[in-house]
Each structure stands twice: as structure tokens, then as C-alpha cells.
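testing teh design pipeline on a random one, pls ignore if ur not involved
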């Protein structure tokens, strides 16, 4: 069952350092929602707050209709998984071992993964079509492959909501689209996906909905094409841009964000 996330007058930040304010959001279940905005606008702080890693400074977060503040850490982990940016591997765990770590919320304090946990982890590798990596050391695979392994770990967690922090950061062109294609497939299977991104082009092509942030607030939210307009992006990023359609073959056109030097951002 796809879970919806809702925030009501949410305020975010750190002790003596407020970041976000009066944020009212509805993140649709079973859809890809892209969170965009310039550096320092509060995206990461919002992510950490929605995951329960930071306590809200005000307001409320509902996940599946339940108040996040009333859920235990174990209950949160069974509802929401987190995929960080590509990380360096310092220990030669096998890929299967890394994916098995996603089963932690379902195990007791001193329990080891069992046959069912291994079956679930193997199924996550199969779903992302990286079964052949199972026995390879995590430290010996490419950045794009590592990102897919981290997504597989989130799948093994069996949480209906997955947060992804810039999942295409540092990836080459081909791997960016491989990862984004996986994101679309996951949403198609009923999962709620929230992606932080610096790339309006990616959101325009792969996201169902978009949230545009500026200076700690929500500037706009809704269907991606309605939110990511030239004027809105120009305002947020402080430079003139426009949305153009580019032919993609087979009668299909895709929207891209391009600089517009002939127009003022004011």
C-alpha cells in the first residue's frame, strides 16, 4: 500500500539555527516527488526532519496518517528507507552483505539475518538487475553500481517510502539515467519516492510531482510541469532560464531547462 506524507506548518532547523518555516506539503503515495532548490535552501534539513533524524522545531509530520513524533525509530524504519549519495566503501563487505543490512529493522538486537532475510535481499538485487554483483566486494564496484546497491538495500528494508538524496550525484551520463529509470520502476510498483536533486531536467523527465524551495520555504508544489516553469526556476536560481521542448524520436518530445541570456531574471 502506497503511503502519503503530509507536513502541517512544519518548521525545521537546528538548536538556535532555524532553517525552514511554515511548510505545508502533501507528498503523494506511489509517485516520484522531486525536491529542488539552490544550495542552502533547506532541502537536506527537510529530508532529515522527514526521516525523523531531526526533531521538528514546530508543526507536524504525518506518514500514512500517523504522527511521526509518536512512532518509534523501529516503526519509522519500517515505513521509510533512506538512500544517501554514493558513498565510499571502506570495508570489503560483499554486495549481498550490504543489501542484507537493510533487514536490520526487522531483526532483534542480537539476531543474525536468516534464510528469509537472504531471500528478500537476493530479491532486491534481482529487482534492480544487479544479481551478478552479489559476491563482489562493495569496494570494488563502480559508483553507479554502488548507487544501485544502496537502492537495493532500501528495497530489502521493505519500507513503502524511499528518500533518495541526490541519487545521481557524481554519476556519469549513462548511470544517471540507469538510476532514474530504476526510480521510475519503483514508483510504478507502488512505492512512494522522494528525490532531492539539483537537476530540473531530471525532474521534468522522471518525476510526477515537484517541490520547489527557496530560502527555507516552499515556493511551489504540484505536478512537475506546472511547478518547474521558466519564471519559477529563474526566481529560485537567480539566473534567467526557460523550458524548451526537444525532439526525442518516435514522435516524443522532452522538456529541458536551458539558460536564457536574452531575458532578465528580475
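output:
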Amino acid at each position: 500500500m502506497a503511503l502519503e506524507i503530509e507536513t502541517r506548518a512544519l518548521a525545521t532547523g537546528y538548536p538556535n539555527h532555524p532553517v525552514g518555516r511554515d511548510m505545508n506539503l502533501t507528498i503523494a503515495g506511489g509517485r516520484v516527488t522531486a525536491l529542488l532548490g539552490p544550495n542552502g535552501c533547506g532541502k537536506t534539513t527537510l529530508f532529515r526532519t522527514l526521516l525523523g533524524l531531526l526533531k521538528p522545531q514546530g508543526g507536524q509530520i504525518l506518514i500514512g496518517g500517523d504522527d511521526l513524533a509518536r512512532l518509534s525509530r523501529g516503526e519509522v524504519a519500517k515505513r521509510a528507507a533512506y538512500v544517501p549519495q554514493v558513498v565510499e566503501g571502506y570495508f570489503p563487505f560483499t554486495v549481498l552483505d550490504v543489501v542484507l543490512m537493510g533487514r536490520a529493522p526487522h531483526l532483534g538486537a542480537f539476531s543474525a539475518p536468516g534464510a528469509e532475510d537472504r531471500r528478500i535481499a537476493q530479491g532486491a538485487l534481482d529487482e534492480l538487475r544487479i544479481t551478478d554483483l552479489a559476491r563482489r566486494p562493495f569496494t570494488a564496484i563502480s559508483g553507479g553500481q554502488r548507487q544501485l546497491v544502496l537502492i537495493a538495500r532500501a528495497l530489502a528494508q521493505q519500507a513503502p517510502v524511499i528518500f533518495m538524496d541526490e541519487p545521481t550525484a557524481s554519476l556519469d551520463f549513462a548511470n544517471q539515467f540507469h538510476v532514474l529509470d530504476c526510480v521510475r520502476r519503483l514508483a510504478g510498483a507502488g512505492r512512494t519516492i522522494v528525490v532531492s536533486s539539483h537537476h530540473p531536467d531530471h525532474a521534468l523527465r522522471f518525476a510526477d510531482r515537484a517541490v520547489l524551495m527557496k530560502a527555507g520555504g516552499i515556493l511551489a508544489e504540484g505536478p512537475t510541469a506546472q511547478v518547474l516553469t521558466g519564471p519559477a526556476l529563474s526566481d529560485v536560481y537567480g539566473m534567467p532560464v526557460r523550458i524548451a521542448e526537444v525532439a526525442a524520436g518516435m514522435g516524443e518530445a522532452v522538456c529541458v531547462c536551458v539558460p536564457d541570456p536574452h531575458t532578465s531574471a528580475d
